[in-house]
From TrEMBL:
Alphabetical keyword list: Coiled coil
Amino acid composition bias (Gly residues), ranges on this chain: 657-668
UniProt name for this protein: Transcriptional regulator
Higher taxonomy: Archaea, Methanobacteriati, Methanobacteriota, Stenosarchaea group, Halobacteria
Keyword flag Coiled coil: yes
Domain of life: Archaea
Biased composition (Acidic residues): 280-290
Transmembrane segments: none
Biased composition, class Low complexity, residue ranges: 578-590
Biased composition (Basic and acidic residues): 266-279, 293-307
Species this protein is from: Halorubrum californiense DSM 19288
SUPFAM superfamilies documented for this protein: P-loop containing nucleoside triphosphate hydrolases (SSF52540), TPR-like (SSF48452), Winged helix' DNA-binding domain (SSF46785)
Length: 1275
């Protein structure tokens, strides 16, 4: 009997014979012709197969036996499976060995990886399978993209069947985000939805297509295998149904959620909320995360970086109308019709907030124009014309440029002209948009050409509308207009769009908001004068110059302009000229407008927006109580995104006399309580600054950037304890509404009856308290410079209500400590940490991490590492994996700054693995950035840029401005090292803007030093000194000895470049002293290396040698390639100065190799220039020419002034000497080499002309005597 293994071997060798003879009997000579084998091969094969019993001879030839046919079929099946598995190997990589996947699902499958060159292809394949499916069976561990829920709903609504199984985590996500769509699926008779503990691999069967989906540890789609083979589809359907049968039925729960959402009626509408939704400019919201807030806090807050009101459903939700439109209304869409345009428009309203629709309809907004083909054309008119041609448009511009107002002008013009109906979604208009089918039905069912306008389309809340536009692109009776902020719109990697929608974005017409020009400013001035009956406010050219002043760069030009016009016109009929208006544009009744600027010289439009806000702060503080408290509360709630500040302001009324009366009473908290009338008068005083009166007598808030500036100026004007007490008093009384029915009753009486905001508080006090606490503290977490609003932990003034959930009660001390850390107030941070008494192990771990951050920022790296290691132990004991990753990252950063790059990389890699395990994308981004930083110091390969790119994408996806600024700061260094100075400068400036936005002065100093390094590399000494001086001033202000030492080092390096050796020595010595006190050895080594060159240039070679030895001893075991290259370079320079060409060439060759391996281009260029000089000293003409040409080429490419001057001067010198005096260099040979391959900056005809090289050197040379540089005083 043949052994099984022998049978398999025979089948493998003779499979073609078995399959051919299974079809029909053939004789041997016929097999020769049929298979193309030789006669001898056929003879051997038949003998072997007969012996194994797999073929048998018959009268008409040989035929495969039953055993042979079965074995051949089985072996062919085996080969097919092997081929399928080989093709799907990359897709299957994330799956464990025990995952239940049948090879049948891979039969004939096409495989797709989410990787270059087409990372979106797996999503597209999945979407194509679901798009028009009649029946779907799906088991998913996660939602790879939001539209899946809508696709399933459409399949069910079309009468198809849907079987859906979700992993618990995916189900919880779906219940929050897609209850509407999945509830509609669950209500269908032929549809089932179940949840199970886990789904190992995604499985989908959609009509005749089966897909196997694999996900990485972070829940991101890794790859897909798609097959149309019947056995693949059958297996997928069976697998899903088994999971559905085994899981718990969640259909009823989803259906109930959907009914609950649909049942929200008009009674849930917040008074004043619709005004905010319809009138607040989209550019107002600052959707960028603040400082590097506590990772523990980030995890609690959720992934949505936008305002709490957009996520929690308690602030300002809208819901009314029939069932078919209710979801759209709740998600912010409303009709622009006669009812919407009715009301009492305020001619001053558009000057202080986004114009309401009645104000647009009344002509109270200026029709913005742009120059097109030499003529000034209406932007709204151009958009209407383009939209009328059924082409979708995107209106793009920076924050504060007036995009939302133009969109509203388009909507009103479209409706009034009779083009057709208009559906409008303002920024922060309601729940995140997901009711795509209902929007599609709404815009396609009516008569006429339907216009849909969506503000802030670049944010996840609204991005689904782009998909609806794409699907309706072929219709000539529907057009979409999207409003988008410029920076995220121009970076597709950060847009929350599907691959198909990203492609469609390129097909839309993009219209850019133009910058203000003098003519447009003149039109604004005339328009305001005409509408208000005032004289023109000021010279347009002067106004334009003023709004472009540096102090207004953080806000839009238009915002700055309209605030100046407000100041110039006053409020209502009391119109004043420039220099006579009130700070806020509002005057107290019966008060002369001139009183508003009393005590301040030169008030007027020319003082700038920030000065105007500062004067508004002074005005509020000088008015009778409770004006300042009301102003602080209104502005704080505006930035926090808490709607209906008017109603909540009456919470300040506290105590038995609070309901009215001439006297101010004492509140239950012991502080004075205002009366209702006093709060009402205070609100009236804020009209024109923080508030704008609506036509119905209510208020709407102004641009929240205005409110941020107001709070900043308050912090500057009032002592810390005073402002913290004021904020604590106001916020505590608002939060007390969650506990006290009597307080809520007082608010109801104050506003004149039933109040929806109070009703919502009563329905769920705990949920309202939790969201309000998070929203209020979120202001300081987004803008750490506002940390003083919250006081010190030891004397915190905000009292949390009893209704506040227990898990939040211990969080404020942690949040406040983190604010001070991120604001750079290390003394404040240390005091907050000292006063914090954590209630649990996780809090204790977070406190240790905070201490580590403070120590690291102070340059105390050993202490920092100890704190981080203690935090790691506590996080591990508490089971907090996310916190553990954050502590490990902190240790990685401390190791990096201490020069332990290998340790830093290992720690960052471990932090990344943990972050991926817990599914925290921001923690992943931070760990990637730290790993990239370590790699940059170790080898500088392109992997560094890949790390930064992916990290930046993650930060942008989650609106983390601080994280994105960190990436840009590091990327600027990497780009500068690679010689792309223009990109490095742009990136560093964008990082600087980001840090200034969130108030991180420590990293602001770093960005300034990055800019100084770019300028120095170019030879722009004055610019380098200016940036370094500003960084030093910042460091002194925040008390950072480390960054002050860095700034002094940059100043010394710039002085060295300028040839001012004495000044360089002084600055560098001061920097070295500071770094030495901090124990920052690797940083000291950087400074001593520059001091070596100062000594060489000064001719003090013994001192240079001593400094080299100190540099080497400081580096010890922390020598990365950059430091090694730099150390070898200065050793080579010293040897060259001593006349030892051989030693110089050896050291410089090593320097070039190390620098080139690590990608340190500037070090390489300088080392090449010195190596060329060393080879000339040794008499190797060819080598000297090669090195100097390479140095000049590389230096010219990267803009390295030092290397260009060094290499060009040396070549000029070598070419200038006569043949007789050329020494060891063969001048003729040198000339021939240069003519054959001239350096890049030298014309070919001048390749041997020393004057050409001298001219290049002079062009880049820094003349220390001829450069007027304002160095700061030392001391």
């Amino acid at each position: 009997m043949t052994e099984p293994s022998e049978l398999v071997g025979v089948a493998e060798r003779r499979l073609d014979f078995l399959e051919r003879l299974a079809a029909e009997p053939l004789r041997k000579h016929e097999l020769v012709d049929a298979l193309g084998h030789s006669r001898s091969t056929v003879n051997r094969a038949i003998d072997e197969l007969e012996a194994a019993g797999l073929v048998a001879g018959e009268t008409d030839g040989y035929r495969t036996t039953l055993s042979g046919r079965l074995l051949a079929a089985a072996y062919r099946e085996f080969l097919t499976v092997a081929d399928d598995l080989a093709a799907a190997g990359d897709v299957l990589d994330p799956l464990g060995a025990d995952v239940d996947v049948d090879p049948a699902v891979l039969r004939g499958a096409e495989t797709y990886r989410a990787a270059a060159p087409d990372p979106y292809r797996p999503l597209e394949v999945l979407d194509e399978a679901l798009a028009n499916a009649d029946s779907v069976a799906a088991a998913l561990p996660a939602f790879p993209y939001p539209r899946i829920a809508e696709r399933l709903r459409r399949a069910a609504a079309g009468g198809g069947t849907v079987d859906l199984t979700l992993a618990d985590r995916a189900y919880r996500h779906a219940a929050e985000r897609f209850a509407d769509d999945l509830g509609a699926v669950a209500r269908r008779d032929d549809c089932r939805v179940a949840a199970v503990d886990a789904v190992d691999a995604g499985v989908v069967a959609a009509d005749g297509t089966a897909l196997l989906l694999t996900f990485d540890d972070a829940g991101t789609l890794h790859g897909a295998a798609a097959s149309t083979e019947p056995e693949a589809v059958a297996w997928a359907e069976t697998k899903v149904r088994e999971l559905v049968d085994r899981g718990r039925d969640v259909g009823e729960a989803l259906a109930a959620m959907d009914r609950s959402a649909a049942g929200r009626g008009a009674g849930d509408r917040v008074e004043g909320a619709s005004d905010r939704a319809e009138t607040e400019e989209s550019d107002d919201s600052v959707d960028e995360g603040g400082g590097e807030a506590s990772d523990r806090a980030d995890r609690d807050a959720g992934a949505d970086g936008r305002r709490a009101s957009a996520a929690g459903g308690l602030f300002g939700r809208i819901g009314s109308g029939d069932d078919g439109r209710r979801a759209l209304s709740a998600q912010g869409f409303h009709a622009v019709d006669a009812d919407r345009l009715s009301g009492d428009p305020d001619p001053y309203g558009p000057l202080r907030a986004t114009a309401s629709f009645p104000e647009v309809d009344a002509g109270y907004v200026l029709d913005r124009t742009t120059v097109r083909d030499g003529d000034r054309r209406s932007i709204a008119g151009l958009l209407v014309d383009g939209l009328a041609e059924a082409r979708d448009h995107a209106l793009v511009g920076p924050p504060g440029s007036g995009k939302s107002t133009v969109c509203r002008c388009v909507a009103v013009e479209w409706f009034r002209s009779g083009c057709g109906p208009v559906t409008y979604r303002p920024s922060d208009g309601g729940d995140p948009f997901s009711a795509t089918e209902r929007l599609r039905e709404r815009v396609t069912e009516g008569d006429g050409h339907h216009l849909v306008v969506v503000e802030d389309a670049v944010y996840p809340d609204a991005a689904e509308a782009v998909g609806v536009a794409r699907e309706l692109a072929d219709r000539d009776d529907v057009s979409f207009l999207f409003d988008a902020r410029e920076e995220p719109y121009d970076d597709p990697n950060g847009l929350p769009l599907s691959p198909a929608d990203l492609r469609y974005r390129r097909e839309m017409a993009t219209v850019r908001m133009p910058r203000l020009d003098e003519r447009e400013v003149e039109r604004f001035v005339d328009h305001v004068a005409d509408r208000t009956g005032s004289a023109p406010a000021a010279d347009p050219a002067a106004l334009l110059a003023d709004v472009r002043r540096a102090d207004d760069e953080r806000v839009g030009e238009l915002l700055a302009l309209v605030h100046r016009l407000v100041r110039a016109t006053g409020d209502g009929a009391s119109v004043v000229r420039v220099g006579e208006g009130s700070a806020g544009g509002a005057s107290e009744p019966g008060t002369d407008a001139n009183d508003a600027t009393a005590g301040r010289d030169g008030a007027g439009p020319e003082s700038g927006l920030e000065a105007a806000v500062a004067e508004a702060v002074r005005e509020a503080r000088n008015r009778p109580p409770p004006t300042a408290d009301v102003a602080v509360l209104v502005n704080l709630l505006n930035v926090a995104g808490v709607a209906d500040s008017r109603t909540l302001a009456y919470a300040l009324v506290d105590g038995p006399n609070g309901s009215g009366g001439p006297e101010t009473g004492t509140g239950t908290d012991g502080d004075e309580s205002p009366t209702v009338d006093e709060v009402r008068r205070a609100l009236d005083r804020l009209v024109g600054s923080a508030l704008v009166r609506s036509g119905d007598g209510e208020y709407r808030a102004v641009h929240d950037e205005w409110s941020v500036l107001f709070l900043e100026r308050l912090v500057e004007r009032e002592p810390g304890p005073v402002v913290a007490r004021r904020v604590g008093r106001a916020v505590s009384r608002v939060l007390a509404l969650a506990d006290d029915p009597a307080r809520r009753a007082r608010v109801r009486r104050a506003v004149g009856g039933d109040e929806p905001t109070v009703n919502r508080i009563e329905r769920d006090p705990s949920a309202w308290a939790a969201e309000t606490v998070r929203a209020v503290y979120g202001v300081g977490r987004r803008y750490p410079r506002l940390a003083p609003l919250y006081g010190r932990v030891r004397c915190a003034w905000i009292e949390l209500p009893d209704a506040c959930p227990d898990d939040l009660r211990n969080r404020p001390p942690e949040w406040v400590a983190r604010m001070y850390v991120e604001a750079g107030d290390l003394d404040g941070a240390r005091a907050a940490l000292d006063a914090w008494r954590p209630a649990d192990e996780a809090g204790a771990a977070e406190r240790q991490r905070g201490y580590g951050d403070v120590a690291r920022r102070r340059g105390e790296y050993d202490a920092a590492r100890e704190r981080y290691e203690r935090a790691e132990e506590l996080f591990a004991a508490a089971g907090d994996r996310g916190g553990l990753a954050a502590a490990i990252r902190g240790r990685a950063q401390a190791a990096h700054f201490d020069g332990d790059y290998e340790v830093a990389y290992e720690a960052a890699s471990r932090a990344y693995a943990i972050a991926a395990e817990v599914g925290d994308p921001i923690a992943r981004a931070k760990a990637l950035m730290d790993a990239g930083n370590a790699l940059d110091s170790l080898d500088g390969t392109d992997a560094v840029l890949d790390h930064y790119r992916v990290a930046g994408d993650l930060f942008r996806a989650y609106d983390d401005t601080h994280g994105e600024a960190n990436v840009r700061a590091n990327l600027a260094v990497a780009l500068r090292r690679r010689g792309d100075l223009d990109a490095a400068e742009r990136t560093a400036r964008r990082a600087l803007d980001g840090y200034r936005t969130v108030g991180d002065e420590h990293r602001e100093a770093i960005s300034l030093l990055n800019l100084a390094a770019v300028a120095e590399q170019r030879g722009a000494v004055g610019e380098a000194v200016a940036h370094a001086s500003e960084a030093r001033a910042t460091a002194e202000r925040i008390g950072s000895d480390m960054y002050e030492a860095f700034a002094l080092s940059h100043l010394g390096s710039a002085a060295h470049l300028a040839g001012d050796l004495d000044r360089a020595e002084r600055f560098l010595t001061a920097a070295l002293d500071g770094l030495d006190r901090l124990g920052a050895d690797t940083r000291c080594a950087m400074v001593t290396a520059i001091l070596v060159e100062v000594a060489i240039d000064d001719g003090d070679l013994p001192e240079a040698a001593r400094r080299i030895e100190r540099t080497a001893s400081l580096l010890e075991d922390h020598v990365g390639r950059k430091r090694l290259a730099e150390l070898d370079r200065i050793r080579g320079r010293l040897a060259l100065a001593r006349g030892d060409g051989d030693a110089a060439a050896a050291a410089l060759t090593d320097a070039v190799a190390a620098a080139r391996t690590g990608g340190f281009t500037q070090v390489e260029a300088q080392a090449l220039a010195a190596l060329g000089a060393a080879e000339a000293e040794r008499g190797d003409t060819a080598a000297a020419a090669e090195r100097l040409i390479a140095a000049l080429d590389l230096a010219h490419r990267i803009g390295s002034a030092r290397a260009i001057v060094s290499a060009a001067d040396r070549l000029a010198d070598l070419l200038s000497v006569s043949v007789a005096d050329s020494g060891p260099i063969d001048r003729e040979a040198l000339t021939a080499v240069l003519r054959e391959a001239p350096p890049e900056p030298i014309p070919a005809e001048s390749a041997a002309d020393p004057a050409a090289y001298r001219a290049v050197a002079d062009r880049w040379r820094v003349d220390g005597d001829g450069v007027a540089v304002a160095y700061p005083a030392l001391g």
